[in-house]
Amino acid sequence: MFRQIWIPIIFMDEACTQEALAVSALHMQQLYHDNEEALQKLRHAVVGYRSAALVSINNRLRNIETATSDGVIAAIISFACNGGLYDDWNIHMAGLRRIIELRGGLDTLANNPSLRLMVSCVDIGGAAVWDTTPFFPWPEQSPVAATVSTTTLPLPISEHIESVVERLPGCASLFKDVKTIVMVIQDLGKSLQHDVSFWEEQYMESGTRLAPAAHGLLSARRDDIFADSNSRNHETLRLAALLFMAALRRQIGFQECPSQPWIDRLIEITGHCYLESNDPDPVMAMQCAAVLVIGHICSQCQDDRDYLLGTIMTNKRIHDAAGFLLVQEWNKCIQLVFGQRMAELQIELSAHDGFEL
Q: What PANTHER family does the annotation carry (predicted)?
């Protein structure tokens, strides 16, 4: 699917082709990192190709008709994909949005559905990396994941999530997105292995099914975790659902941003619930954080799994909160999420005073 969509787009426009060559030269630098002579030539190639692409785009931006062509849109998508910094990404996407507005809106891309799909996929991918709101709405006429319920989840996870849903009626819409993502992960089953090919259609199709839920999560409000318990619970669900999404993207071969900042924020929310003595139900967010990171444990990234385990096991505030609030329920959540690995880590950390559950 990726080849069917993106490769033809690359050759749609001169600037897009030049940018693709620049990216190829950047990749070649990684392959020839120990060959200084080759690196020097590749650096010049990157500058040359990218400069040519920018000149081509700038020349056409002076005319309203050529500035809003499919080729220009494709080229700017390429620039946005390959920008390594948030400022670069934001500038390219803001420019792309303005060009599409001048053209008459996203509906004017209806005659080129492949380009329309790439606009949405790149928009969602970048928003996920930077945890920002997507620039464009998700199109109504696009693949949408099937309706799901907690009954599609394996027991006892479904029972526990169901109990959390009942205690968080205000977050029902977010949980729908969470369960959709879980279903997509489960549908892939045993196929999700390290050797999954980025180019195979079945995995790209799964990513497309994930997109509507991902767009909803990224478009959701970012609540201030210090405001009140409802705000913390809402942000907990949003962050944990993004971890589900990151796990799936890794397993189908997409490059994903590090999950550690999201993990740290979940831990921050959990710790703050303990400090907030007036919180009517401080254990609620702890349950959410513990249960919803199950999706992240599906990830093939061992470093992230160990980071999550180590952070929870060595955070005295969380351990104190567990002892002060509801030890038995907390242990149940931990064992449900981590299983045998938790027992092993408890042994490893047994030398730390005050870190036993």
A: TRANSCRIPTION FACTOR (ACR-2), PUTATIVE-RELATED-RELATED (PTHR37540), TRANSCRIPTION FACTOR DOMAIN-CONTAINING PROTEIN (PTHR37540:SF5)
> Rounded to the nearest 10 degrees, what angle do helices 2-10 and 14-31 cross at?
110
For the stretch 135-161, pLDDT in tens is 998 876 654 333 334 444 444 445 545
Q: Could you tell me the end-to-end alpha-carbon distance of the chain, in angstroms, rounded to an integer? A: 48
CA 250 to chain centre: 9
Tens digits of residue pLDDT in 63-107? 888 888 888 898 898 888 776 677 888 999 999 999 999 999 988
